[in-house]
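go over this record:
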Amino acid sequence: MIINIRCPTCGKWGDIEISEESAKSISRGLLCVNIPHNTICPDSFIAYLDKNLKVRDYFVADFQIEIPQTIFEKPDKQKKLIVEQLMDIDLIKLNLPAILLSYMLRGIFLKKKMALIIEEDFLNIHIINFFNYITQDTFTSEIVIISKNDYQTKKKEFRDYVVFDGNEIINDKDKIINPKKIAIEKRIIHQFIAEPDKSLCIVMLKNEIHKAFELSKFIAEYINKAEDKKKIDINKISGGLQEAYKNKISSVYLNFLFEIVQNYFEVAIPSSIKLVLKMIF
């Protein structure tokens, strides 16, 4: 089945092929289709198709943003079985759009309580198991799933939560979900969505979250141990990270880590480092 589709970045049109099996699965929600580089144009993006095979939404990650490489192994048969028993990855990808996953990832990194409005009860266990699995042994996350009616009735109880209804942010009093500041989260989620192997994609996602946790924890401990915090050198922190984890750390990713240090680990960032980051960004 051939679909004519337009790149949301450059506007070029091109044909992609959708299998009959994929088209039939749209009855469960929107079909998420990954368009790799050089399929239509040099750009890579994700398109969401409805049951009429019309594009309802796009998701584009900035591939100029560098994230440290993650070394991982493909899960063995036992791990694959555990993952498949815990959750249905197809249901996650079909019902939690990429931009929503990016928002929620940011909420986890910044230690925010989140509420997700979902009407289909059968999804709840899959979603909870999904977030529990990807944050296992790293970030502590508080995610509540609630119906729209229950949310309207108990709205006051969720004043301190970031609340999502589909792609819409309906409560975010601290304004932490800024679409212009989720470049790293979007790159991570794009990798998860684009990888067709159900077990491998979630291992990749879990590894990225683990990496963000370990690197930001390294910075938090470095700052806490410093005798004179006013003299902390951001270049020494960056060099220490690269030496300890054998990874090149870009300035964008380093800024992302400092946000986690300040918000999740609740470690004050020295004014000298804040000034450097402000000059960079």
Remarks:
- The chain is about 45% helix and 15% strand.
- The first strand starts at residue 2 and ends at 6.
- The CA atoms of residues 253 and 273 lie 15 Å apart.
